[in-house]
């Protein structure tokens, strides 16, 4: 495993939970053209299959034109149907093995494991390509449990499966976690601003500051 101190964490870009299909693909393209992004997660809150399918097609076109992978949150069947690169599972380690078998070795299968190291280890052993822990920042969403910095420190030293920090990120948190995570999952943190590309640039600058500290 390469030394995390020497490498800037990669950007894992989340879409907003809802967006206008007439305007968002262009905003996404602008951000992808401005910064290097490793992967995009279609993270819509909608349960409408048609809405999800049309969003998947539009975002896939933008991402694949720029050689950026795109996964969908939770909806395994839609990942296959719409030619996406994989799926981000939200139930920890529970369905990793089943989904890996279904989608095959080439698909991206990631698992969100909250603040549980144990669940993260199980997900990794079951075949997950990455483990996401969060939220790392202060939020009233969920039960309020945060993924601690110690978890990322321990993971980066002990486990080879890449780790993702997500949830209520700030530039201060990104600077603090830059040496101990492989990816930052950034979404509403930039989409809720006037200039998402510029806002993402500020997070990247914070990573660099953290790495040089």
UniProtKB/TrEMBL annotation:
Thiamine phosphate synthase/TenI domain location: 11-179
SUPFAM superfamilies for the chain: Thiamin phosphate synthase
Any coiled-coil regions, as ranges: none
Pathway participation: Cofactor biosynthesis; thiamine diphosphate biosynthesis
An example Gene Ontology biological process: thiamine biosynthetic process
GO cellular component: cytoplasm
InterPro entries in UniProt: Aldolase_TIM (IPR013785), ThiamineP_synth_sf (IPR036206), ThiamineP_synth_TenI (IPR022998)
Keyword vocabulary terms for this entry: Thiamine biosynthesis
GO molecular function: thiamine-phosphate diphosphorylase activity
Keyword Phosphoprotein in record: no
Name used for this protein in its record: Thiamine phosphate synthase
Naturally occurring in which organism (per UniProt): Celeribacter baekdonensis
Taxonomic classification: Bacteria, Pseudomonadati, Pseudomonadota, Alphaproteobacteria, Rhodobacterales
């Amino acid at each position: 495993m390469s030394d995390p101190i020497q490498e800037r964490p990669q950007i894992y870009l989340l879409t907003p939970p809802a967006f206008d299909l007439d305007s968002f693909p262009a905003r996404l393209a602008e951000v992808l053209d401005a910064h290097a992004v490793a992967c995009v997660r279609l993270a819509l809150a909608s349960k409408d299959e048609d809405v999800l399918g049309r969003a998947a097609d539009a975002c896939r076109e933008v991402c694949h034109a720029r050689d950026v992978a795109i996964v969908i949150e939770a909806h395994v069947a839609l990942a296959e149907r719409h030619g996406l690169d994989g799926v981000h599972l939200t139930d920890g380690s529970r369905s990793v093995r089943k989904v890996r078998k279904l989608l095959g070795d080439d698909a991206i299968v990631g698992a969100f494991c909250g603040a549980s190291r144990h669940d993260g280890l199980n997900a990794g052993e079951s075949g997950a390509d990455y483990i996401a822990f969060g939220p790392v920042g202060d939020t009233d969403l969920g039960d309020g449990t945060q993924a601690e910095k110690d978890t990322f420190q321990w993971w980066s030293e002990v486990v080879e499966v890449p780790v993702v920090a997500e949830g209520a990120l700030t530039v201060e948190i990104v600077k603090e976690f830059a040496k101990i995570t492989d990816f930052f999952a950034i979404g509403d943190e930039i989409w809720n601003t006037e200039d998402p590309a510029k806002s993402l640039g500020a997070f990247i600058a914070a990573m660099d500051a953290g790495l040089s500290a």
